[in-house]
Design brief:
The protein is of the alpha/beta class. The protein has three domains: about 250 residues, Rossmann fold, CATH 3.40.50.980; about 90 residues, Rossmann fold (3-Layer(aba) Sandwich); about 110 residues, no CATH class. Helices cover about 30% and strands about 15% of the residues. The protein is built from 15 helices and 20 strands. The strands form five sheets. An eight-stranded mixed β-sheet has the order 2-1-11-10-12-13-14-15. Helix 2 runs antiparallel to helix 3 and helix 3 crosses helix 4. It starts with 10 loop residues before the first helix and ends in a 14-residue tail after the last helix.
């Protein structure tokens, strides 16, 4: 069976065939779809597929190990086939579809199919036991499951416990034949055409993506993301921002070149890998999935060099330290000049590890995404210094985006900014926290020790001289405050004036809570 749009040859031939210089931007006719009045991923990705149909969208591997490459047009067509299968099986608006797979092209294809049909994807941890799988699929009211063939025996033993599931889509991974109770994913995907598949209920930015999280709160619980909220948050990485109201012409107009390549080293079943992959697709980029199912730093580095990967997502030191050991062992083996961004979340990404990676690629930008599945955010780092405070240099202050800021002292003993019941801000010292700026912009006020914060309501002016720290809150139309770390209370007047000037300079920046939550 033919799989993918370019199954012949090896990775090097695919690189030559689909190099950025060799793919032309083509504006194809756009059908009148009656777009949703709110932003959603399906409409946006379809617009990108029409703008750059020949551009690569996904790289992966066939069951026999041969490389695959799917163009944006093929990615969209295959998702149409899967979306039609969901609807033909009787799926209703916002019914749930579980992805029970390792990293592979079919993972994002099936999510795109869910968005097209107005269904909600449900991530499924492939390490879960049968009882945990039953719990999640029952709790989420799952009606369809897309699964790798290696999980066939597990599913066969629990199918009778999840009677709501009416469609099982089997993804071939050379582990055995398709079960009689399942449908071959490839046969369905290859039936997809150019006509967008839309349920009778249409599409909406209110349609959901579910991220099930577990481990710290008992049984896993589903976090519900509105598509419009998630799309606009993830799209913040794009230099050309989308307008507040849906405009597919705006999506196509900014898709003037092939986007970057992203490699989710982290599993797509986790928000770290999935959200960054979805963000990269919003930039008309492509997603690279590796063949191995266990993390192998050598395979990762080989893939980065071979496909000129531009960004990757990892899970802190659990991934970064093995990568660094491999680089230190063979410092001249890999050319990583294409890699510009490493995004980490989930566990600690230590200072010494970041510094080690910067030794091998000084152009790296490292992003710490801290927070929960309900509130995504990040802290950027472009250099490793001894002391850490967030600040903008003069050149960065003049840039419209002002997204890059520098950090010092990675082992920061920070003072935590908290809100007290009396509508006052307080400083709680002796608490080890990292200052977090949520992937948008951290605007820094006067001096390198000042941190601009947005608060949820008017706070007036309050002072707290405890432990030599001075808090000056400045009431603004959007109720913003500046935290000033000063040992001399006599600097209050000067600091307040400089802080006010800083607020005026950065009035239009989106400023977020430094503790990892939404303001």
């Amino acid at each position: 069976m033919r799989r993918g749009s370019s199954a012949a040859g090896n990775w090097k031939s695919i690189r030559r065939q689909y190099s950025r210089a060799g793919v032309r931007r083509t504006i194809a006719p756009v059908p009148a779809l009656g777009f949703s009045p709110t932003w959603n991923f399906a409409d946006s990705w379809e617009a990108i597929a029409h703008a750059v149909p020949e551009a690569p969208a996904q790289y992966g591997f066939a069951p026999d190990g041969s490389p695959l490459q799917f163009s944006w047009s093929r990615f969209d067509q295959r998702a149409n086939g899967i979306a039609r299968a969901f609807l033909d099986a009787g799926a209703a608006h916002q019914d749930k579809v579980a992805q029970y797979m390792y990293n592979c092209p079919q993972y994002l294809e099936s999510i795109h199919a869910c968005f097209k049909a107005g269904l909600a994807p449900v991530n499924t941890n492939y390490r879960y036991t049968p009882d945990e799988l039953v719990y999640i699929w029952d709790n989420a009211d799952v009606v369809s499951v897309v699964f790798h063939g290696c999980f066939s025996d597990v599913i066969d033993g629990l199918r009778h416990r999840v009677p709501r599931v009416v469609l099982w889509l089997w993804v071939d991974d050379a582990s055995g034949p398709c079960p009689t109770w399942a449908v071959d994913y490839e046969e369905v995907a290859n039936q997809g055409g150019n006509d967008p598949v839309v349920g009778s209920w249409g599409r909406s930015g209110d349609d959901l993506l579910l991220i099930y999280t577990g481990g710290t709160t008992g049984m896993p619980k589903g976090v519900m993301w509105r598509q419009e909220d998630l799309l606009l948050a993830l799209d913040d990485a794009n230099r050309v921002k989308l307008p507040e109201s849906p405009d597919m012409d705006a999506v196509r107009a900014r898709t003037t070149k092939i986007g970057p390549r992203n490699l989710p080293a982290a599993p797509l079943m986790h928000g770290t890998g999935l959200f960054n992959a979805m963000s990269n697709l919003m930039m008309a980029g492509s997603i690279v999935t590796m063949r191995g199912r266990k993390f192998d730093p050598v395979e990762l580095l080989d893939t980065i060099q071979l496909l000129s990967v531009n960004s990757m997502s990892i899970v802190g030191d659990a991934f970064a330290k093995p990568i660094l050991r491999a680089l230190d062992a063979e410092p001249d083996r890999w050319n990583l000049s294409s890699l510009r961004v490493i995004i980490s979340s989930g566990v600690m990404f230590a200072a010494e590890t970041k510094g080690g990676l910067l030794r091998h690629n000084q152009r790296l930008i490292m992003v710490d995404a801290l927070g929960s599945s309900e509130a995504i955010g990040s802290l950027l780092q472009t250099r490793c210094l001894r002391w850490q405070r967030a600040w903008l240099d003069d050149k960065e202050r003049t840039r419209k985006s002002a997204h890059r800021f520098y950090t010092e002292q990675l082992d920061l003993q920070a003072k935590q900014l908290i809100e007290t019941p009396g509508d006052r801000l307080d400083l709680q010292s002796q608490r080890l926290v990292e200052i977090v700026a949520l992937n948008f912009a951290l605007s820094v006020g006067c001096r390198q020790s000042s941190l601009l914060v947005k608060t949820p309501r008017d706070i007036g002016t309050s002072d707290d001289a405890r432990n030599g720290a001075l808090l000056t809150a400045i009431q603004e139309a959007q109720t913003q405050a500046v935290l000033i770390d000063a040992s001399d209370a006599g600097e209050q007047e000067i600091a307040a004036r400089e802080a006010q000037e800083s607020l005026d300079r950065h009035r239009n920046l989106p400023v977020l809570n430094p503790m990892g939550g939404q303001p």
